């Protein structure tokens, strides 16, 4: 029987893997670097004056609250729109265009560091920048999840690992800002030049991807397969026409599985595909049909992020150390932000080696739901101030252990969910599955952020 191409080329130097790692890193740079620079924004917006020797804020802008709201809302809305309308816009426009606009908005933010502006105007421009940059991030992230879903599973894990490392960059930047002796303006300028360079590198990596043979094989697999099958069938016919009595074509080329190997059989079945059958086979499934196949993974990624965002950073950032002194200054940057982001990154990276439970096991959603145990565990740590619950885990070491398990399980479960979803559908529907999963990822972020206000009040 004639077979299509099955010998995939090698990923030389693992270059495609490195590119998808960088692409994953680039998708979460905007959110993390804006969050890291919150000290700069608050300092620039919240001007104070002294009344009877006491510093009084002239106007409170609540930057952190508005930044969270105007990050998650467009992410959720644009991810939903991308899930339904992405097929009408080419992949190159969605991905390269999003990266270009993100780069422009980062450059604008960096320039504004040196531009004096009234607080109200600066706040408005910054909020608009955050809104639009997260719109493009939503399109970029959804499209990349669909793209990486067409490659072997380990590349999805690598992509998610890159996303996890973006948070570690933000945490390290926070530590550097604390230890730095430079002025606040120079530090802020450094913050925003870094993601500008990172986004530019991400764009160049994406433009390089289609030129690599390994990426071409998987991302254009169906097209390459049809062309090769056509050539082989023409060679088999001997004349380049339709001379073989056992191969009949009606408006299309025959599928390789329909070609009969034994041409000497007197009563060989004459199989063919009509043009309508070929179109039906290659037509992408509807969003509803794809959702029916991946709804379990959609629930898992939503629940994981709901639990994670409900606690981090709204609750965990208020945990206090019992050791006063210089350690008090570095406790939250190290034990909250850096520890969480490193644990999340390690959890995502482990999935490139171990994928357990398997995608068709009921144990996986059960384990995801069991992560709710971290809610009481972290609420009972030394969160201050508190009004209702007692402190049960007072020591720093206990908090560190809980945070390590919390972050590792978050990264691991999220990465498995996002990796498994494209495997539950046909290759032609992998991008749709990726776009849908990105929407439910954003939904989990939004629901978790809403629950964080409730949990903080409970303490």
Shape summary: globular
Helix/strand/pairing category: mainly alpha
Give the SSE string.
Answer: HHEEHHHHHHHHHHHHHH
Let me know the number of strands: 2
What does this structure look like?
The chain has 459 residues and is mainly alpha-helical. It has three domains: 12-219, MFS general substrate transporter like domains (Growth Hormone, Chain: A, Up-down Bundle); 234-275, no CATH class; 285-459, Growth Hormone, Chain: A (Up-down Bundle), CATH 1.20.1250. It has 16 helices and two strands. The longest helix has 30 residues, at 119-148. The protein is globular and about 80 Å long. One of its GO terms (cellular component) is basolateral plasma membrane. Pfam families: Nucleoside_tran.
Q: What's this entry about, in short?
A:
This protein is mainly alpha-helical and 459 residues long. The chain contains 16 helices and 2 strands. Belongs to the SLC29A/ENT transporter (TC 2.A.57) family.
Name the features.
459 residues; mainly alpha; Growth Hormone, Chain: A; 3 domains; two-stranded antiparallel sheet; 16 helices; 2 strands; 2% strand; globular; disordered N terminus
Describe the secondary-structure layout.
Blueprint: H1 15-36, H2 38-45, E1 48-51, E2 54-57, H3 63-85, H4 91-112, H5 119-148, H6 153-179, H7 184-208, H8 213-219, H9 221-237, H10 275-282, H11 287-311, H12 326-350, H13 363-370, H14 374-379, H15 396-420, H16 430-458
Helix pairs in contact: 1-5, 1-6, 1-7, 3-5, 3-16, 4-5, 4-7, 5-16, 6-12, 6-15, 11-13, 11-15, 11-16, 12-15
